[in-house]
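I have been asked to look over a protein record a colleague put together. This is what I was given:
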Amino acid sequence: MAKGNLLPIKRLPSTARGQHRAPHVAVVVSGCHEDAYGNFVQEFCFSKFKSDMGTLRPMLWCDWEKTFGWYGELINCTFLIATKLDCYWPNKLVDEFFIGIHQHYFKNCPVSGRSLHDPPNTVLCPFIVVPIFVTLLMTAVVVWRSKRSEGIV
C-alpha cells in the first residue's frame, strides 16, 4: 500500500470491554473485492495501528512488549475484514501490507525482536566498581601479610 493512499484516522467501533469489532460490511456480489478490502484495511486497521504506534517514540517501536498487543489487533483486524468481504486470508494484499508495515516500523529492529542497550548506570557501576575495589583490597592484604612474616604458623 502506498503511503499517499492512506485514509484519515478512524477508530473501530468498540465493544463494552474495549475490544474492537470489524466494521459491518454488506457485500452484494460474492467474492473478494480487493479494492474495497485494501481501502477497509487502510481505513480501519492501519489508521488505528498508526495512531497507537504514534504514541511511542520511534526508538521504542522495537520493544515487542509495547507493540505486541497493537500488532495482534492489526492482524485480527485484517482477518475480520477479509472474512466479512469473503476474501481469503492471508492473501497477496495482506502480505504486501505487512511487508510495508515492517519496512516502515520495524526495519531497524534486531532479528531477536529486542532492542539491545546498556543497563542503567545504577546497575552497571556496581558491577564495574566492586571488582576493582576487591582487587585493590586483596592486593593490599597480600602486601600487608608479606611484610608481617613473623607469627605465621
Q: What stands out?
A: The two ends are 83 Å apart (CA to CA).
